[in-house]
């Protein structure tokens, strides 16, 4: 070899070029060799003493040049030291396993999304117009996961298409129940019955859909009471589906609305089972130009009292005449607490204070559907026994303040009153969410 060197340790006679001797000395310093080891050895001889792992021969050839091998993995081709082949291969394997897991997760999301799409489009999903599909004017919307389920055209509704998980007139039914003589102990206020419908969850959105269904209840109120604003805001007359709500939220993020929420959900919600809360519903309405407000309540023992005071003020101030059952012109409120959300449609003052809510997880009973007629006469009792338990009829809709409002963290979202859309300047000012704090009274 040219420029041959030898190990500086006195009893070691290892020889080689400068690079290999440096590596050899390093092994002395690490304790891998004793001072007398390697006496009279060559590069190849020392390498053979290292069992199974490949020695210096794996790093350097007999001329002292690095022993490099090209990676055989597709799309790689990197030149790597022979001794590091296994480590390099392990890295490729780990990467492939990670990609496989990601693809598996993506396939599962796609499978669920297709199931959700099929549920929303119902029997129209795989049928064209000649096979009895939807009329041409809604085909385009349906291609984007639009309408769904069985289609029921509700007379007097501003929504062109209403799915079978939507129940119109439940507030009228509750009003009828509270007007029954045996319920005269109750004094309450109700939201505008003409603009509120109950929208329940379905099998495909179980576990994540409550936020979307409550958002739909607010959307349905807007569509009924401000139809022009609704169409201008969302570009359609029909109620937004879950997938369309997801699309609008992502659009809001792209516009710069609620950047923090976008980061928390990794900027992706369309086609997933991710939950939404008040901030995502805020993004949904704000990107469309509809003014909404989030009210945040102090945590702790006084939280539920604060919620009740806000709700009672919101509904109570709209009715100068205080009857036993008061019907207001107020819209519903999106009601968020830990792990769940509901829609507030009124409140009860006595005999116990509480909130009246629509819960997407609780489907209206057939009996309640039967008494939605404004001319309902409790004496007829719809063919039921005269000892109807009216308390049980309203129980799914009543949250009692003292016994059933156990969370200490609450938020409400309301659509601000009035008509008209926000201009670009107003929308820019609302990109960062500003919570209204409800101070203790």
Automatic annotation (TrEMBL):
Keywords, sorted A to Z: DNA damage, DNA repair, Hydrolase, Metal-binding, Nucleus, Transferase
GO terms, molecular function: metal ion binding; transferase activity; ubiquitin-like protein peptidase activity
Localization in the cell: Nucleus
Highest taxon listed in the record's lineage: Eukaryota
InterPro entries, sorted: UBZ3, UFSP1/2_DUB_cat
Any Pfam family the entry gives: Peptidase_C78
The keyword Heme belongs to this UniProt entry's keyword annotation: no
Domain spans labelled UBZ3-type: 64-100
PROSITE patterns: ZF_UBZ3
Protein name: UBZ3-type domain-containing protein
Taxonomic source organism: Saitoella complicata (strain BCRC 22490 / CBS 7301 / JCM 7358 / NBRC 10748 / NRRL Y-17804)
């Amino acid at each position: 070899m040219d420029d041959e060197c030898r190990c500086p340790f006195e009893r070691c006679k290892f020889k080689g070029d400068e690079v290999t001797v440096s590596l050899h000395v390093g092994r002395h310093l690490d304790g891998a060799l004793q001072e007398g080891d390697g006496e009279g050895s060559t590069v190849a001889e020392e390498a053979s003493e290292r069992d199974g792992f490949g020695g210096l021969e794996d790093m350097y050839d007999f001329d002292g040049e690095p022993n490099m091998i090209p990676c055989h993995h597709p799309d790689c081709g990197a030149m790597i030291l022979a001794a590091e082949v296994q480590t390099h291969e392990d890295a490729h394997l780990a990467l492939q396993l990670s990609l496989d897991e990601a693809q598996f997760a993506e396939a599962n999301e796609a499978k669920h999304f297709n199931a959700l799409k099929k549920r929303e489009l119902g029997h129209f999903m795989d049928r064209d117009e000649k096979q009895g599909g939807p009329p041409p004017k809604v085909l385009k919307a349906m291609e984007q996961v639009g309408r769904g389920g069985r289609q029921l055209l509700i007379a007097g509704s501003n929504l062109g298409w209403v799915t079978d998980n939507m129940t119109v007139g439940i507030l009228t039914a509750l009003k009828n129940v509270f007007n029954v003589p045996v319920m005269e102990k109750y004094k309450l206020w109700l939201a505008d019955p003409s603009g509120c419908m109950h929208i329940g969850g379905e099998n495909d959105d179980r576990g994540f859909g409550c936020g979307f269904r409550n958002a739909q209840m607010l959307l349905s109120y807007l569509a009924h009471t401000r139809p022009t604003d609704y169409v201008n805001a969302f570009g359609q007359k029909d109620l937004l589906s879950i997938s369309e709500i997801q699309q609008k939220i992502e659009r809001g993020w792209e516009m710069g609305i609620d950047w923090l929420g976008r980061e928390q959900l990794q900027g992706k919600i369309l086609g997933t089972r991710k939950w939404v809360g008040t901030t995502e519903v805020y993004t949904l309405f704000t990107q469309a130009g509809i003014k909404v407000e989030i009210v945040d309540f102090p945590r702790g023992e006084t939280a539920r009292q604060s919620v009740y005071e806000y709700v009672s003020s919101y509904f109570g101030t709209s009715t100068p005449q205080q009857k036993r059952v008061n019907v207001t012109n107020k819209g519903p409120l999106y009601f968020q607490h830990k792990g769940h959300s509901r829609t507030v449609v009124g409140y009860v003052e006595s005999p116990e204070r509480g909130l009246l809510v629509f819960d997407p997880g609780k489907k209206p009973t057939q009996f309640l559907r039967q008494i939605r007629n404004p001319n309902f006469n409790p004496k007829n009792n719809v063919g039921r026994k005269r000892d109807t338990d009216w308390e049980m009829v309203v129980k799914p809709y009543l949250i009692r303040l003292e016994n059933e409002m156990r969370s200490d963290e609450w938020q409400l979202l309301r659509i601000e009153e009035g008509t008209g859309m926000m201009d670009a300047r107003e929308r820019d000012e609302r990109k960062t969410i500003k919570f209204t704090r409800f101070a203790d009274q």
